[in-house]
Amino acid sequence: MKDKPSLLIIGNSNVGKSSITRLLLPNPKKFKGKAGKSPGSTLLIKSINQEKLPYQIVDLPGFGYMKHSSQRRQEHIKQQIVTHIEKYHSNYFFGLVIINILRIEDEINKYYIQNKETIPLTFELIKFLDEFKIPFLVIMNKVDKLSNFDVKKSINIFLSSAKDYGLNLIHLNDFNNENLQVIPYLEFSALKKINVGKLKGIIHKYLNKKVRHASGTL
Length: 218
Fold this sequence. Notes:
The chain is built from six helices and seven strands, in the order E-H-E-E-H-E-H-H-E-H-E-E-H.
């Protein structure tokens, strides 16, 4: 993990992590990842490295949607994530928290509205990354599956619920990376390649910042 700066990709299972990873690779055909056909199947931490890619991508195991998995296995995968980030958080120059926008309402309804004593797994994950000061972008993937009205509705539900957990999110277009009190988000579609340019732009902005800091030019 020390050869190149690392980009963290993390999120609940079956949200499109592999599809988004392919969009970032100079040679996506060489990437062996499977696009979410077995939710919750990823147990090993994968590092993706290609010669012309100026950083490496680390895809952490998904959690939160394991239809055929036991509670014990889910906790095991979650602990893997926690242990890895605690050990390697300083290696990451940036992170992507991938969310399936189709599941936002269900998750918030189940873990927040119906039960005030629990926390939606997505918010728990965001709070955890924030504690380690890893800069990251929340990507709301699969917006192509919804109407514009439903996209806005789901995003508004997510943003308002997040505030109740002390999380302030702002659209990437309005984000100033000097403001550490807010977290940027971006609506996205890996299938339709919506906002790919904006995603690559913010990644390279933080990569350049990491490189300058490492070389002592900051």
